Amino acid sequence: MKVLVINCGSSSLKYQLIDMETENSLAQGLVERIGIEGSVLTQKVEGKDKYIVKTPMNNHKEAIEIVLKALVDGEHGVIKSMDEITAVGHRVVHGGEKYASSVLITEEVKKSIEECYKLAPLHNPPNMIGIEACEELMPNTPMVAVFDTAFHQTMPKEAFLYALPYELYSENGIRKYGFHGTSHMYVSNKVAEVMGKDIKDLKIVTCHLGNGASLCAVKNGVSIDTTMGFTPLDGIVMGTRSGSIDPAIVLYLINELKYSTEDVNTLLNKKSGVLGISGVSSDFRDIEDAAAKGDERAILALDIYHYRIRTQIGAYAAAMGGVDAIVFTAGVGENGPETREACLEGLEFLGVKVDKEKNNVRGKVREISTEDSTVKAFVIPTNEELVIARDTKNLVK
């Protein structure tokens, strides 16, 4: 059985074709800067040269088409036709309260995903584009939706309820859902394996840092809290998203500055975060380059980003009554040594210290804390695709 996994992010798309008999990746790729100048696809196949396609990709549909062409490419691909793909697993960010586990995609499921557009405006629409593009090209291939919200269903009520009239939760489902669940689940289990310990004996803070970003408190193997909330807009500062703000700011924008609700939604989701602060870009590499040249707003954007992550790690250590490991993952977390060091700076009182030499690593499993650290820090590349593929295999079988 070969499963194709499609993982559409807000400005990126990751994919893998996985042989589920061995769980080996036959091909894996990343499309970066979708909708941004400099769009590029990079595909890796063992035993072959890296395949790079640089071409404008204005939206996720164009990106999906290029991915499928790369997989069947005569020289660089790994399959002769789409018929070799048994099933496709799609990452879907928000399933509301309706879906607490993965499901086979039907018209009803697609309608439910569309109903959640308002809750995840940056992600559910590209998720759906990925689904529909694959359905069009592989109409007889089963599709599975794997929801980011599932892992966080273990949160206790004191963590997921807002201090609003209770009826808004019981009648309208307004609560914290949390996202990046497949990533937080994978890296927390992986770090327990690397440490040689039972995850049920560990308290872990996982930091999924990409264009979208969230932290999760994983105690004894389950999520007890996470930074994203009712939507992926909540929590720490992100690429284009504001993260947590005083809710009265929304009223001020509408009543005093005469913003429409659509204007506010666009502002908070697409024009804020490090993009809004820096005025440079939502891509951290661009901001770091500007900061290195002395751009004060770029420096400020990074300082705010690091501060919010650092204080949240401390908060989750308090929530769990301690912490054994801090894990960095996703695009920025895996590839940003400076970011990791800055986020941990000032947390020495918890018992974690960064080893600069060990921390000079990108995209590899590695402990980055010093030998005498009582709290260990790690880089763990995420593999949401494998989690999605496993669910897809189980549902299709």
Could you write a compact summary of the structure shown?
The chain is built from 15 helices and 14 strands. With 397 residues, it is of the alpha/beta class. One of its GO terms (cellular component) is cytoplasm.
The dominant shape is: globular
CATH classification, class level of the largest domain? Alpha Beta
Secondary-structure element string: EEEEEHEEHHEHHHEEEHHHHHEHHHEEH
What is the number of independent domains?
2
Please name the fourth-level CATH homologous superfamily of the largest domain: ATPase, nucleotide binding domain
Distance between the termini: 10 Å
Low-confidence stretches: none
The fraction of residues in strands falls at 15-25%
- Counted by DSSP, the helix tally is 15
* Secondary structural class: alpha/beta
* Rg result: 21 Å
Supply the CATH architecture of the largest domain.
Answer: 2-Layer Sandwich
CATH topology-level name of the largest domain:
Nucleotidyltransferase, domain 5
Task: Characterise the protein shown here.
A hairpin with a 2-residue loop joins strand 10 and strand 11 (about 220-225). This protein has helices spanning about 60-70, 105-115, 125-135, 155-160, 165-170, 180-195, 250-255, 260-270, 275-280, 285-290, 295-320, 330-335, 335-345, 355-360, 385-395, and strands at about 1-10, 15-20, 25-30, 40-45, 50-55, 85-90, 105, 145, 205-210, 215-220, 220-225, 325-330, 365, 375-380. Helix 10 crosses helix 11 and helix 11 (about 295-320) crosses helix 13 (about 335-345). The protein has 2 domains: about 1-145, Nucleotidyltransferase, domain 5; about 195-380, 2-Layer Sandwich (Nucleotidyltransferase, domain 5). It is α/β, with parallel strands linked by helices and about 400 residues long. It is globular, with a radius of gyration of 21 Å. About 35% of the residues lie in helices and about 20% in strands. Strands 5-4-3-2-1-6-8-7 form an 8-stranded mixed β-sheet, with helices on both faces. A 6-stranded mixed β-sheet has the order 11-10-9-12-14-13, sandwiched between helices. Its EC number is 2.7.2.1. Belongs to the acetokinase family. Homodimer. Keywords: ATP-binding, Cytoplasm, Kinase, Magnesium, Metal-binding, Nucleotide-binding, Transferase. Pathway: Metabolic intermediate biosynthesis; acetyl-CoA biosynthesis; acetyl-CoA from acetate: step 1/2.
